[in-house]
Structure formats: C-alpha cells, structure tokens
Amino acid sequence: MSASANSGIKQQIEAMYPVTGIQRGMIFHSMLAPQSGVYILQDSIRFSAAFDPEVFWRAWEYVIQRHPVFRTLFVRLDTDQPVQVVLKQVLLPKVELDWTELPEAEQDSALRELLVSEQQRGFDFARAPLMRLHLIRCAEQSWYFVWTRHHVLLDGWSGPLVLRDVMACLSAFAAGREPELPPARGYQDYVRWVNSQNHDVAKSFWQSELSNFDLRTPLPMIQESTREQRQVEDLQAHAVLVDTSLKQQLDTFVKSERVTLNCVLQAAWALLLARYADLDAVTFGVTVSGRPPQLPGVESIVGPFINTLPMTIAIDGSARVGDWLRALQLRNAARADYEFMPLAEVQSLLPANSPAGGGLFDSLLVFDNYPVSARSSSASGPSAEPLTSFSYNNYPLTLMVMPGDSLLLQFKYDGACYSRAAVTQLLTHLQQLLGNLTASGEQRVAALTLVAADEQHALLVDAKGPDREASRDTIVSRVAAVATSDPTRPALVSGDVELTYAELDASANRLAHCLRAYGLQAGQRVGLCTARNPSLVIGLLGIMKAGGSYVPIDADWPEHRIAQVLSRAAASIVVTEQAMLDLVAGDGDRTVVSIDRDWAEISSFPATSPAISVCAEQLAYVIFTSGSTGTPKGVAVSHGAVVDYCDGVLERLGVFGTASFAALSTAAADLGHTALFGALCSGHTLRLLPESLSLDAHALHDELVRRPIDVLKIVPSHLEALLSAMPDQSLLPRQCLVLGGESPSGSLLQRIRALGACRIVNHYGPTEATVGALSCDLTATDRVLIGTPMAARRAYVLDRHLQILPAGALGELYLGGAALAQGYVDEPAQTALRFVPDPYATQPGSRMYRTGDRVRNVAGAGVQYLGRIDQQIKLRGFRIELGEIESAIRTLDGVQAAAVALQDAGHGETKLVAYVVGNVSLDDCASRVAAILPEPMRPSHWLPLHDLPLTRNGKLDRKALPGLAAVAAPVAAHVPPASGIEERIADVWRDLLKRDQIGRDDNFFQLGGNSLLIIQAHGRLKRMFGTELSVLDLFKYPTLAKLANHLRAGSQAPSEGVSQSGEPLKAHTPITEQLSHA
C-alpha cells in the first residue's frame, strides 16, 4: 500500500482502545452461537402522526456522530484480545419499507417475521455500526420503527438516552432548527477510568468473596436441553405485575428496615434458589449499572457499562429477617468499589480445578432502575407507542425486576430448558416469599415458607396414600385364619417339599410350645439362622407364636458380625439348623434349638396354638442394618406394621388368584418380605428358592421353567446380571415384577419389556418404614420414579427446616403412617433423631421417619429419587454427591449399570473412579459426562465391569469395587504432535496454558482451558490458518489431533497453513486488511 493510501486509512480512524471485560464476554457468547439472538437488543415502536422519514433519518445520523459507540467496530490485530476501533464516519444502516398495500393482519405477521429475522441475523463485529434501523410505513400516519443492535455497543441505561436524543433531534429538525443537546462524553473515557483502577486490590476483594464458593447452584425445575445451540425461538418471557397490597407492603418494609428494594429482591431470589436446591448457601449473578460516580458525566455516556458479577448468599435460618437483610446490604455497599472487574476475570481467580469451569452461576437477577423512560418524546414530536422489546443473555434463566409506581417481575428464559408452567410456578413462589419476607423483620429466616396455604393443602393431599382403616391383625393370626378357613391351600413350596397352611401352622405351633418350654418369654428377641427352606418360615412363625420377635442372621456373614448382632439383640435363644450350629452357639451361654436336629422333640409338642396373646403393637422382628457409627443397629418392626404393609402392597400390585410369590433374597434384610409376608398374610403361596439359584441364571431358569412364579421382587442390578447370562422370559414372573433396592436402568426396562408382558413396579421404602412405602408402575414408561404413597402411608418432601416443598424442589423424603418401625433397639438417641414428630399429621403423637434420601416431587407423577443426602465425599476440597454422578452415567445410552467410588491413589491422593457395565465406549461416556457435570464431579478413571459386585441382599457392594490398581492408566504416554498443523496449534496451547509439553491427545479444557483462553486461542488460530474456524469448533474438537483434523478437512493449503512466502495465513476482512498495514 502506498504511503498516501496508508495515510488515508489512518485518517478514517478516530480512536482505538481495548475492549472491556463485559464486551469480551458478549463477543464470545455471540460468536459461540451467532444465530441464537443472544445479546441482541431490539425495540419496535409505532409512530402515529404526520411523519417525515428524511427528518427521522437525519436525526439518527446526528446521533451516530454524537455517540462514538455507533461508529465502533471490533477486530483483532496482532494481539490475542480484540480492540475497538472508532471510525470518523459510517453509513447509516437504514431500511425503509412500504406496507400500506398489506391488510393489517398481514402487516402484523410481516412485523413478527422481520423481528425474528433480525434477531437471528446477528452482526459482523468487524463492520460498523453494529445496529440496523427499519422504518415501515403502514398507513398515512402510521409507521413501524425497528431498532436492532448488539449489546456490545450499549446497555439498558443507554437505550433511553439514545431515544431521547433521537426524539430531541427529530423535534428540532422538524421545527427548522439545530438540536441543542448537552455535550456527550465518549465510552473511551470510561475505559481509561477502568484501566486506572487498582486491579490488585480488586482481585483480593473478589478472592475473598469467592472463598466460600463450592459448586454452582442448581437451577430450579430445569429440564435438559438436547440442542447444541440455543435458537431464537427458544427465548421466552413471562411477567407478572405485583398486586397493589404486596407492593405497598414492600414499600413500607424497606423504609422501616432501612434496606433497599434491590436487597429484598436479592434475598427473596436467594431463598427461592436455596429452597428449591436444598442448600444453605447459593450463588447467582447480579447486574450492576457499572457507572462509577467518580467519573463526571457518566450518567449521560452511551455504552455498555452494565456488569454481571457473582453473588453468594448464605441462608442463616436462625437469623432475624431484618438483621439478615441489613448484613446483605452492607455487603452490597462493600462491593461497589470493585464492580468494574469483569466476570471472566473474577472467575479466573478460582483455582484451575474449580467447579466453575462452566461458569459461576446459571441464573441472573437484573434490577432495572434506569433514570430515563424509554418512552421519551417531546411534545411536538410524533406519538410513540412501544410495541415489543427483545433482549436476552446467555443464561437459561434471568429474573428481571422493574420497579416504579408498580413492580413488574419478569422471567426471561430458555424455552428448551423451562416450560411455561415451571416459570409460572417460580413467579408464584417468588411473590409468596416476598410477602412472607416482608411481613415482619422480627421473624426468623427459617420460618419463611415457599408455598401458600392453599398450595400446601394440595401438596399434603398428594402426600397421603389412600385412606384405609388400620387392621388389628397380626402375622400369626393371618396365617392361622387361612389354616382354619382353607387348610389344604398351599402355603409354601421349597424344591419338592410343599406345605399347606394347616401343616405350616401346626409345625409353627409345635415350635412355639417348644420355645416356651425352653423359657422364651413374651417380648424376648430370638436369633434365627437357617437356610432358605421351610425351616426359615417355621422358625419365624414359631418364634412369633411364642410371643417373641425374631432376629434374622445370614449364615454367610462373618462370625464376628453374627456374634455382634446376637449380642446387640440380647438373644439368649437361637433357632437354627444343624449345619449352622457352630456359627451361633457362642460360648455355650445361649439356648440353641436346631429345627432339623431337634425335630423329634419339637414334633412332640401340641399342634394347637399356644395360649399366648400376640397383639398388633408387639414386635415381629428386628433387622440389623449397617450403622453410621460402625456398629449395626436393629430396626424394630411390629406385627401391625407388617400386616399394614402387606395389605397396602397387595392392593397396589393388583395380584389376582392364588399367586406364587418367589423369595430369592436373604431373610436378614427386608427386601424379601414382600414375598415372604405378602404371600403368607394373604393366603398366597410362598416359593422358597435356595441360595444356590440366586447367582446361577441357568439353574434358576430350569427351576422356573419347571414351576413358574407369579410375583418376583428383586434388585434391578441382580436381575440385569441374570438376564445378561440367560435372556429368557422364564426368568420373569407371570403377573408382576417388583423392582426394589435401587433405581432400574432404562436398558433393563427395555430388556424386560422385550422378553415378557408382566407388569413392572418400582417399589421404594427403607427398613424403618417396613419394607416399602411408595411404588410406581414402570410397565409403559422409561421415566423412573419411586412413585406415590401406598394406602395409609404419607410421603413428604421437606426442606431442612421441615417446610413442605413444591413440585420440582429438592428436599429430603420423610415417611409417615401406621407402618413405621418402632425405632432402633436400645438406641433412644438415634430413634429420636430419625423418628421425629409429624407436624402435618392430624392424629396426635404421629411420627415421621427421616430417610436421608434426596428427592423431589414431579407434578402429577410422584416422587423422584435423586440420591443420598449423606452420600457425600470431599475431593480436592469440593463437596460431591456420588449419587448424582452415577445417575448421570446411568442416563447414557448403552449403560446398564454404573457405580462411582473415591479410591486411594497413594501419596495421600484420592481419585474418582467410575465403574460401568454395558457395551459402551468409556471415552464416549467420559466425554458425554463432561458435558453434564462440572470438572470436579467428572471421574478421572473409568473401568469396564462385566457386572457390579452385589451383596447377598442384591445391592451394590461398594467395598468390592476394584481399586485403582485394576484400572488402566487413564492417560496414555505422551504422544507428540504429528504434523505441521498439530505443532502450530501446540505452540498456541503451550503459550496460553503455560505448559511445556502438549500431546496430540491432550484435551484443551482438561489442561486448564476456559472461555477467556478459548477466545485468545480462537483469535490466534484464525490468524494462523486463515480459515473459517468458529469458537464452537474449539469446543467440538478439544484435542490437538481432532482440531488439526478438522482444520485439515477445511480446505487447507497443502502447506498446512503456511503461505508460499512462509508467513502464517491471515483471515482478511476489509477493515483488518487495512488496519494491519496502517
């Protein structure tokens, strides 16, 4: 270029200066999704008066010259960061249309199409101005005006300032005079001010603010979007005008408590997020005007001052509302001096392994408090009627608060992530919280409720199963009744042995008399250790008929465990079989009755029922479960609770005829009680399948072919293993398959449906709630819920302050009703901790059990299980729920089962390991999970397993999961770049990521890459290779090799990105080409 041409280019430039942090973020998200409408601002206005378009355009030309932002473009020169270049002159981007020939309905339709088209069109950041103006004549004195611009030019505060200037110019020109506007400062003045601030002090402040940041706060009621990029049609809005009485209450409250309305809205939003996510601290984004009062005239500068920053609020339930709010307001005041720091820089202050790799927050609170009305026009100008306003950011959920004489609350949301019903519910609950929050500053934060009285009533109705009068029967009275009414009915079948109800009842009576003769007293606990054969049923019925309660012992337990349980149960008598005598004999201090060895003696006792009164409140059994203190704890369950359960579950299962119930699990846990007591308490037949068949699919298949069953309850992973070994319909029951103990996978449900036509029921309930309390029919759905409460049961989803929660909110499941266990044997403190008073029951003295299970109500469908509240680990200082990771992996196609554990890696280090069952690529699983979960929750090691190890109860045996020694090294040996393209990309990565060594299989993000660095990488690679490379491509192809292959496929020159002159190729636009030589 000649010297004169070079001089001419320079003469086009008025100014050049760095972009601000907020501008960088907007440019990044716009480049990532260029047609999504993100950070596009748009207003449409109707002018109804005599109107001269030429005067209107002249007014806009004046305003463009007045405000430098409208003559600004954004380019990268020889730096990683873009710069903004202000030109002296730009063409007015105007379009004038005439729709006068169109009917009014077609005009409205055409306007809607134009608005959407302009939103999707986006902008080229290298061409100024980044706005477009449409003026459409609709009638003689009716015009549409559409103003579309990019947020990178100006914020919401600036928009009214610009329109005010336009209207003032329009009035002046129409009157034949020049506009008289006050001098306007340029945005460059603000950029200088920002660069003059003490950034080190600001960084220290924000590091302190982020010191308690843990994981991003989950969004309430969000549904997973399957779209790779947001679409304009996904952008939705829903608003509500706060009623007058609440607005007056808010105004009175803020005055009396000396807090701002903004502070109250922040607190209410924090409470809503905390209640929905079941957290005691939440983080969300807040917008600040960003206009420093220290900068003279800042209120009249047009530009993008607004900034978005994280706000973490702790929910102190014990604090007074007024004190809590004033503390929050003091924090807001302390932040004011440091609000100039852009969000990306704030986020960069977190450690490289921070869970905020995808952002600090997912929701945004915008308090719109602009000083000038957007509907600003002079008296002599045309009548202006605002029609539509469009503005969306990159967050799935934004709460807009527009104060004034009235108060408008509006959610702007991604329709692919939120339904209109969910957003409506959130608005309702936000208003409820605002009303409760401002009712009195003296109340405690914990007392603030999310739901109104009418909604709470509806939730309590849904929390109750059908009413049913409690039975006064006992287990033994139910068996005796069938033995009397239908003595020859089959009671149990074990191999070739079959006992009728009369025979079973008589045998149990004889054993009861025998035990009484050995000194068994009413209420005494008796150990029971037998194989899964008739002795088991005779033994437990005989113990209960004698007035005792049985304590089941699994013969496969270690001897130490057996001795520990018998000791804690204070069992001085044990009923067993000869093969188990050595396991239970102890030191000779127990009376041991062996049913097979001592049967001659037992059979000499009467076959009639002992003269012992057994009532519904009396203990039936004590099951010992693993205890958090390291010693087993005994759950004490009464006869009435068992009978109540049996009646409820049979009603829910809909079993017909004289059905055969298969018992396939140990009696030492209550999983098998659905079959055991479900059959015996209702006159059905119990089919005892020996232990040898539980893990032998072929032998089990042969047995069930010989004698099919009608009802089977089994742990899903156990069934999955059986069906994998023998995919045959004969392994399934004829009537009803009951799944319990864990959540079934989608692949298992599909396999079951493909094999047979039995009903599939998911059954949930802890031992403390007597076998089961909720169920869900999964026969025709892949949505796995634990369902709704059975008859006479109650299932509440409560927060940590025992407040009832609405549908969609995460909370702990509390179970109530007549079938609760009595508590823990000889552990009054633990009993009081877990069995607490039921504040929602109408019957005095009612209790509810704290399950420790994290759940949520799904509107109209039932309860969804999400994992354990106490299944937490700490990894690199971050709190992680293993259940959430496992749930995420199980949702992947092809995954049959999954488990995650924290394993010792030596040298004081631990690693998160994922164990996966299924015909899937582990690399693919890791990649897909990385798209769902934050980095600390992504397993660093993945191990394929043929089956997950199971306990004898059919549940996952976490202790048996292989250690890290069995896991292949997750990262292969360093493989250096293999081509010129790979080497050049590696050079960029080394510099940006500050790493000496980059391999071709290394992942940019796993090495510490983030959105700030991706912008720099994108700019360098564009300049280096001169190709159409999008920001999204860097996310799609995160490894060196994949990105190089993509670039190679993009019509690269044979020289692999190097021009014939040996210089890197550059991306050219008219302005960058000129500026590179200027």
Automatic annotation (TrEMBL):
Record has Phosphoprotein as a keyword: yes
**Chain segments carrying region Disordered:** 1051-1078
Question: Which residues constitute the signal peptide according to the record?
Answer: none
Q: Which PROSITE patterns match?
A: AMP_BINDING, CARRIER
> What biological processes does GO assign it?
amino acid activation for nonribosomal peptide biosynthetic process; monocarboxylic acid biosynthetic process; secondary metabolite biosynthetic process
Which residue ranges does UniProt annotate as crossing the membrane?
none
CDD domains from the UniProt entry? A_NRPS, DCL_NRPS
What GO cellular component entries does it have?
cytoplasm
InterPro entries recorded: AA_adenyl_dom, ACP-like_sf, AMP-bd_C, AMP-bd_C_sf, AMP-binding_CS, AMP-dep_synth/lig_dom, CAT-like_dom_sf, Condensation_dom
Tell me the SUPFAM superfamilies matching this sequence: Acetyl-CoA synthetase-like, ACP-like, CoA-dependent acyltransferases
SMART domains linked: PKS_PP (SM00823)
Gene Ontology molecular function terms on file: catalytic activity; phosphopantetheine binding
Is Phosphoprotein one of the keywords?
yes
Q: Biased-composition ranges for Polar residues?
A: 1052-1062
Q: Which UniProt keywords apply?
A: Phosphopantetheine, Phosphoprotein
Q: Where is the Carrier domain?
A: 976-1051
| PANTHER family documented for this protein | FATTY ACID SYNTHASE, NONRIBOSOMAL PEPTIDE SYNTHETASE
Q: What protein is this chain from?
A: Carrier domain-containing protein
Organism listed in the record? Ahniella affigens
Which lineage is the organism of this entry classified under, starting from the top rank?
Bacteria, Pseudomonadati, Pseudomonadota, Gammaproteobacteria, Lysobacterales
